[in-house]
Amino acid sequence: MTTTTQAAARLPIENPGQAYQRRKTTRGNFELYGWVFMRASGVVLLVLIFAHLFVNLVAGEGISAIDFGFVAGKWASPFWQVWDLVMLWLAMLHGTNGVRTIINDYAERDGLRMWLKIALYTAFVVVVTLGTLVIFTFDPCPPGAAADLLPSFCTT
Amino acid sequence: MPSAPAGTLYRGREGMWSWVAHRVTGVAIFFFLLVHVLDTSLVRVSPEAYDAVIGTYKNPVMGLGEAGLVAAVVFHAFNGIRIMLVDFWSKGTRYQRVMLWVVMGLFVVTMAGFLPRHLMHVFGGE
Ligand code: HEM
Ligand code: HEM
Questions:
Q1: Nearest C-alpha to atom 41 of ligand 1 is from which residue?
Q2: Closest Cβ opposite residue A102 in set B23, B33, B118
Q3: N or C: which end of chain B has fewer CB within 10 A?
Q4: Is B7 domain-assigned?
Q5: B35 lines ligand 1 (CB under 6 A)
Q6: CATH class entry, domain A31-156
Q7: Is residue B106 part of a domain?
């Protein structure tokens, strides 16, 4: 290819002296906010999840102590209710957004990508709704349950 | 297939493998979380139902699974901080490989603190 044909194929520069102008985006800043959210939520999740794992797996009797009474003891306190609620929402938003990126990377066929995302968002809505309801409607002393399965404060 | 260019920041080196591991652990934790919220929701069914299902988890196979999950979370969390430092710290890209070794070091220390205690709970011995 000669230099003349290359030059002819190039678009003329309209205002050669003008300062470079960034293209105005027309699609909004969704991906930018997503990128920032992944980092902000990550820092908070580190604290929330490490404490969750420490309290449930390391402290006391660890995993062998987990039963209904253990959960009731924690969720009797608004502190752990709020803790778990924030952890649920942040982890699901962070995880869903992360998996969305991965679907976009690997699912190249439009139809497949759409179905995978429908499945992903359905899972998100179901799990977040269920988890939120469970925390807010939880009763540590359900009537009619065997007393030895309940936390000790139910009988007093 | 283009052959791998020499001397890039990423391809085929520690930077790429840490990215693969970050991806794999992220997806694994996500699927765990879906199941985890479902089984926790059994506390709304009845204490018996919750204790019955959690009881079936209390065996050595699940105990090792829990150890694997914790390992995935610990790696993903520490490497996530490394990603943020690469993004926001002016010297981040220069030290990305050093920081990966720091991540691995912290990972080993955390797991060394966690594993003996967890395995003690799983395999009896108090
Ligand atoms: C093997 C490790 C784990 C065990 C034994 C465990 C145990 C539990 C238990 C007993 C509860 C009931 C409430 C409470 O104790 O606060 C719970 C709730 C919860 N856990 Fe975990 N957990 C583990 C790992 C994780 C991880 C890695 C995450 C985050 C990705 C997580 C996220 C949650 C959330 C969001 C809730 C609230 C569920 C709801 O709203 O119904 N857990 N977990
Ligand atoms: C423990 C604290 C956590 C930290 C510090 C953290 C940090 C990060 C960071 C910085 C990214 C990169 C985002 C990007 O490249 O734009 C990321 C990606 C991701 N995270 Fe997390 N995260 C944490 C917990 C979780 C949890 C609990 C889940 C699952 C529910 C999860 C699932 C994912 C997924 C699926 C990706 C996408 C990976 C990819 O695109 O290659 N992360 N995380």
A1: A131
A2: B23
A3: N
A4: no
A5: no
A6: mainly alpha
A7: yes
Phi/psi for A77 (5° steps) reads -105, 130
Closest-CA residue of chain A to B88:
A39
- Compute the distance between CA of residue A119 and CA of residue B98 in angstroms, rounded to an integer: 39
Condensed to tens digits (0 to 9), the pLDDT of residues B76-87 reads 999 999 999 999
Residue identified by tokens 């205002």 is: A15
In a domain, residue B90? The reply is yes
Nearest to B43 among A43, A71, A146 (CB): A71
CATH of the domain at B80: 1.20.1300.10
- If one counts the domains in chain B, the total is 1
Is the CB of B46 less than 8 angstroms away from the CB of A145? Answer: yes
For residues B37 and A131, the answer to whether their CB atoms sit within 8 Å is: yes
d(CA A37, CA A146): 45
Q: Is the Cα torsion angle B76, B30, A97, B22 positive or negative in sign?
A: positive
pLDDT reported for residue B8:
54
pLDDT tens-digit readout, B25-55: 999 999 999 999 999 999 988 888 999 999 8
Q: What is the per-residue DSSP string for B19-49?
A: HHHHHHHHHHHHHHHHHHHHHHGGGGT-HHH
Residue B55 structural domain: 13-123
Q: Distance from CA of residue A152 to its chain's centroid?
A: 35
